[in-house]
Design a protein that fits this description.
Helix 2 packs antiparallel against helix 3. The longest helix is centred in the middle third of the chain and has 27 residues. The relative contact order is 0.11. The model has no long low-confidence stretch (mean pLDDT 87). The protein has four helices and no strands. It has one domain. The protein is mainly alpha-helical. Belongs to the CotF family.
């Protein structure tokens, strides 16, 4: 483990849950940015290239979401369970400092 990451997180390793959530968030951000770029693209060729990237990103987002759901780390349709999980994760984060 990188000592900088250890110092920042207060842990000896990043968990699969943390890495998967980060990937999910990054993918979601990429989807939003690509959607904006599609709406502003000037040529059909650029638009098609961006649409391909957009579709690949949506597919990756679905795969990562399914992984998180299968592990019980993400409850997109069970709001109460997700809130409880978010509170638990927030308490864990507060205890790291």
């Amino acid at each position: 483990m990188n000592s900088i990451v250890e110092n920042l997180t207060g842990t000896k390793s990043l968990t699969d849950q943390v890495v998967a959530y980060d990937l999910l968030h990054s993918t979601k951000t990429g989807i939003k940015g690509t959607a904006i770029a599609i709406s502003e693209s000037a040529t059909p060729e650029v638009r098609q290239m961006l649409l391909t990237q957009f579709n690949q990103s949506v597919s990756l987002h679905a795969q990562v979401s399914e992984y998180l759901i299968s592990k019980g780390w993400y409850h997109p349709v069970k709001v109460k369970e997700q809130i409880n999980l978010d509170l638990k994760n927030a308490k864990t984060a507060l205890n790291l400092g």
